[in-house]
Amino acid sequence: MKTGVFTIKIKEVEFIVKRTEKKEIVSSKYGTVKHKIKWISECKYILFNRRPKFNGIKSDIKIEHLNEQNVDTIYNDVVENNEREFKILSSDKNSNVTVEYIYKKDNYR
Fold first, then answer.
1. Most C-beta atoms within 10 A of its C-beta, which of 7, 31, 37, 88?
2. Do the beta carbons of residue 59 and residue 50 sit within 8 Å?
3. Which long-range contacts does 69-74 make (Cβ < 8 Å, 24+ apart)?
4. Secondary structure of the chain as H, E, C letters
5. What is the pLDDT along the chain (109 residues), one digit of tens a residue?
6. Between β-strands 85-92 and 99-105, what pairing exists: parallel, antiparallel or unpaired?
7. d(Cα 38, Cα 55) in Å, to the nearest integer?
8. Could you give phi then psi for residue 56, rounded to 5 degrees?
9. So what's the pLDDT on residue 43?
10. pLDDT for res 106
11. Which domains does the chain have, with CATH numbers?
């Protein structure tokens, strides 16, 4: 869960998540977003220092559910974990919205 390759599917778009101990790279057919990652506990982590690129061009991402001024820091809680997948709840520091994502572990795509 802390490192590896995972997939997320959002509205029929597949995202590949490559995570090391210090960074997370999320790729899709639209581009990539790099974040630094800091684990707070076994089940809580923060993504920060967002670096988006669309087809090789640096850009700003519009993320509907997150407050754009605070999107650089995303707080995540792992609420379920099994051998095939794990579920996280994500929010930014000033949002009242929490979004649920299910990460499929690479061996089980």
1. 88
2. no
3. 69/94, 70/94, 70/95, 72/48, 73/46, 73/47, 73/48, 74/35, 74/46, 74/47, 74/48
4. CCCEEEEEEECCEEEEEEECCCEEEEEECCEEEEEEEEECCCCEEEEEEEEEEECCEECCCCCCCCCHHHCCCEEEEEEEECCCEEEEEEEECCCCCCEEEEEEEHHHC
5. 899 999 999 888 999 999 999 999 999 988 999 999 999 999 999 999 888 887 665 555 444 444 444 457 899 999 999 999 999 999 987 778 899 999 998 865 5
6. antiparallel
7. 27
8. 85, 0
9. 94
10. 80
11. 4-108 (2.40.128.20)
Q: How many CB atoms lie within 10 A of CB 53?
A: 15
Among candidate residues 99, 81, 100, the one with its CA nearest the CA of residue 1: 81
**Structure tokens, 17:** 């998540």
